[in-house]
Design brief:
The chain is an alpha/beta fold and about 300 residues long. The protein contains eleven helices and eight strands.
């Protein structure tokens, strides 16, 4: 008979408060890596919560009744606006030796009431979009998790990320706001730009299916940026387009057309062109081309123009 296969989280016990898209995903990843899931706590025990608990052989409980004392880890995976209220509720009962939350905008101090009750506290924020629960643990491989907190909490976060083939990145409290802002730009900001590009095309009378073409273009650009990062270079090396090339005439025509149809978007596009030049630095257009591009951008009004 073959010896049982050892899994990296064998012997770890974990409970989850908040079985939404992130919480349900991380609970499944932990279970697939050998952890025992004790309790699944939710505001209401809707059928999806009970189904997840049954799948993981866990006990479904209402948040107000969730007590994870005796477990190694309590994972708090609720929306940012609900975090303080949920933590206050959880602090009324004994909880696990370590409590980790998944909020990107908050550090370990968000769990201070649980620390006062004896839990080591920290954060475990995945830099990954969860459009829906992602049950396959392969979805965790290569993901960066922002961590901070007490030594025991950081050690628990490291054990989880190691088990998932992910990376733990130390993000101290003083860097949290800018870290999270950058995260929103990398995800929501990119999606906003894609939606804006589609809106501009709609203004030109193009059919809705052009959005699929822009999406494929965005995927190719991000794939090129990924190659640069993998090679140890800045993703800025993958920036393309007329501003990156110093093609002042094309930029001028683009902005003139936009000013006629969607003048409210001119400042955004001008600012993006200036940011392109800033990101490219010395690798961007040279000499006369850079000067001509600057003059083209200066010709269009809006808050993006530098002060005189």
């Amino acid at each position: 008979m073959a010896a049982p296969t050892h899994r990296p989280l064998d012997g770890l016990t974990i409970s989850v408060a908040g079985p939404g898209r992130v919480g349900a995903s991380l609970a499944r990843w932990a279970a697939a890596s050998g952890a025992a899931v004790g309790r699944i706590g939710a505001r209401t025990l809707r059928p999806a919560v009970r189904a997840l608990a049954a799948e993981l052989s866990a006990e479904p409980v209402e948040l107000a009744a969730l007590a994870s004392a005796g477990d190694d880890v309590l994972l708090v995976a609720v929306a940012d606006p609900a975090l303080d209220r949920v933590v206050e509720t959880l602090a009324r009962r004994p909880q696990a030796a370590v409590a980790l939350h998944t909020s990107g905008s908050r550090g370990a101090e968000a769990l201070a009431p649980l620390r006062e009750r004896g839990s080591a506290v920290g954060s475990l924020h995945p830099l990954k979009a969860f459009p829906h629960p992602l049950p396959d643990p392969e979805n965790a491989r290569g993901v960066t998790f922002a961590v901070d907190g007490d030594p025991a909490a950081r050690a628990a976060a490291g054990r989880l990320t190691d088990a998932w083939g992910a990376t733990a990145l130390d993000v101290p409290a003083e860097a949290r706001d800018l870290y999270h802002l950058a995260a929103t730009l990398a995800a929501g900001g990119v999606t906003t730009l894609l939606a804006t590009a589609t809106s501009i095309a709609r203004s030109a009378g193009l059919p809705e299916r052009v959005a699929a073409g822009y999406l494929e273009l965005a995927r190719g650009a991000l794939a090129a940026a990924a190659e640069e990062l993998a090679a140890g270079r800045s993703p800025a090396a993958a920036i393309t387009g007329p501003a990156a090339r110093g093609d002042a005439e094309t930029v001028r025509r683009h902005l003139a057309a936009l000013e006629r149809e969607r003048p409210e978007l001119v400042p955004l596009v001008v600012r993006l062109a200036r940011e392109t030049l800033a990101r490219l630095g010395e690798t961007g257009p040279e000499g006369g081309a850079r000067q001509a591009l600057g003059e083209a951008l200066d010709a269009f009004p809006g808050p993006s123009r530098p002060p005189a």
